[in-house]
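User: Before I run my own analysis I want an independent prediction to cross-check against. Here's the chain; please return only the structure tokens and, at the end, one sentence I can use as a sanity check.
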Amino acid sequence: MKIDKNIYKLNSIELAPKLLGKILCRNINGKILKYRITETEAYYGEQDTACHAHKGRTNRTKIMYEEGGVAYIYLCYGMHWMLNIVSGSRDIPQAVLIRGILGYGGPGKLTKFLNITGQLNGENLINSNRIWLEDDNFVCKFKYATRIGINYATEEYKNKLWRFILA
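Assistant: Structure tokens:
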């Protein structure tokens, strides 16, 4: 069953741990692939120096200013697509990076495996038949950690425990 659309109204810091254990679903030419989410990271607002929207709205980040429930997909290092889920209210830029799924640790590996590219940027996860999330009521424990690959952020934001890992 598709995830309750109201969950996307949560801010990214609340949403990130709630996505652990949910099922990431991808329709590739009629074949439905489903994998449990094992790791997420929260990025929250223009004040978060690790967030792409830290410097304001740009062509790249404008999707982060949308209402929660859409995909924000960008190319990292010119070779790895990153899947993020926009959350919260319109005009407060925030998103949750999907860092891992069962069998595919690392955001670039999972997007490559699931054929997730920039063509899905802006996709509405609530009504899409190409990519969506499901909830099978799996209950999990998780641990907190610092986010990865954000050396450009200030010390305060580098040290936030905004990475969530299925225990």
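Sanity check: The radius of gyration is 14 Å.
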